[in-house]
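To: structure subgroup
Subject: Chain for Friday's discussion

All,

I'm putting the inputs and outputs inline so they're searchable in the archive.
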Amino acid sequence: MEAFAPQIERMMKRLFALLNEADRRRYAAIEAAKLGGIRRN
């Protein structure tokens, strides 16, 4: 897996910091799904 460019990573972290707890969990779930970390039955 390739890392994000430093500028993109900073932008993602800023966005994450602005989200409330429920939205942070949704964001994390989407990122995990992109990496193949969520399995649905």
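Points worth raising on Friday:
Residues 7-32 form one domain.
Residues 11 and 40 are 29 Å apart (CA to CA).

D.
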